[in-house]
Design a protein that fits this description.
Chain lengths: 75, 75
């Protein structure tokens, strides 16, 4: 999976840690299947925007907070 | 499509306008099908993160710049 998806997953894990929200709890809060949450958490899946929004809301943060930085320098 | 997807599409259109990038140009820059770009632009599709990252890079902005704000007040 892309480097940027991995960076998103890193931010997700950090935000879960900050809020003390387990994968189980996140699954219940978002109504997203528990094993799929695990794959999202490990950066193994390329989720859609609506799942991103659900996860951000459950983590009480903005979607922008979970977004990785893109290197725009070589353009 | 969800209200948040519509707000994302609004930000996308605004960023295209700022950078004077047409839907055609965005299609070429991202290698995403021209008609699909049109549907993304109108908020008709729930795109995945990797497409979001491609679009942000083509628009020379960060993915966070295209993200809508979630109302976290009623939690």
């Amino acid at each position: 999976m892309s480097d940027l998806i991995q960076k998103f997953a890193e931010k997700l894990r950090a935000k879960r840690g900050e809020n003390n929200i387990s994968q189980d709890a996140l699954s219940k809060l978002t109504d997203i299947d528990r094993s799929y949450i695990g794959r999202i958490d490990r950066g193994e899946v390329n989720i859609s925007l609506d799942k991103l929004f659900k996860i951000a809301k459950a983590l009480k943060c903005q979607p922008a907070d979970l977004m990785p930085e893109i290197d725009l320098s070589n353009d």
